[in-house]
Amino acid sequence: MRRLLRAAAYAVLPGELVLMVCLSAGVRPPAPALVAAEAAVLLLLLAEVAVFLRLRRHGRTSREALEELVPRAVLRLIGHELRLMRSLALWVARRRDGVGPDDRAFGHARDGAALLLGFAFVCVIETIGMSYLLADVPVVHEIVLVVDLYTVAFILGLYAASVVRPHVLSADALRLRQAAHVDIRIPLDSIATVSYELLFSHDKKEEGVLDLAVGSQTSLTLRLSEPVTSVGLLGRERRVHTVRCHADDARALLAALTRARTARTPA
Fold it and tell me: 98-116, pLDDT tens digit by residue?
């Protein structure tokens, strides 16, 4: 049943998108085709809700039920967008995400700020220019305006996520993050060595190595005694034994991490 629903969604939703574009452009399809398309979308929605409720009755959590109905990659992309928008709200409120009262936070947004904010400024100028050029084409103007405004929000969200989601050092683990798409927890007992190592090139992707570069640079290299699992944006999992990351004050993070590891070592 779930495979049938996914196949129906792959067929119905692109058709609905084409229909919306036609209506926005002033092209009105025949009435029977319009009614059939809307009925198909409604039936698909009702079927999805029915299967979701059935899965919940059989003991699945809401997240598990959604993962049964929606491809994992789609769910992760939606989650990424929601985290970006939440990061914008936290940035405006001057709050941070995932930092407990006994944790130490280490920022990593400074060296990437110029690029992201500069790109956002260029997009704002482009939005103003396109609005002026398309003023005589209302439908295209509205579509392009929405896309441009969302692009600006997306870029600002990337920067905000880097600000409000710092690296976090707790009593037993180091949590490394990058914007809204990387969040990896490394137990302190799994860290074999950590060193200050400033690198500016990560062109070659090495097996078992995770590079969390900021501004094309990393400054700390962690070698692990036990590999940890890194999950990519679309849900692809990798086992990594070496992690390179960057922090605004990498030497302070190195010192704090060394003290935390020493405190856990038996005398």
Answer: 999 999 999 999 999 999 9
Find the helix or strand (DSSP H, E) in which 228 lies.
strand 218-231
CA 71 to chain CA centroid, nearest Å: 16
d(CA 184, CA 17): 36
The full set of domain ranges for the chain reads: 2-70, 91-164, 167-264
pLDDT in tens, 194-247: 999 998 866 667 788 999 999 889 999 999 999 999 998 888 889 999 999 999
Distance of alpha carbon 105 from alpha carbon 185, whole angstroms: 14
Do residues 257 and 225 lie in contact, with contact meaning Cβ atoms separated by under 8 Å? no
The whole-angstrom separation of Cα 145 and Cα 199 is 40
What confidence score (pLDDT) does residue 144 get? 87
Name the CA dihedral angle for 145, 151, 152, 155, rounded to a multiple of 10 degrees: 180
Question: In sequence order, what are the beta bridge partners of 182?
Answer: 178
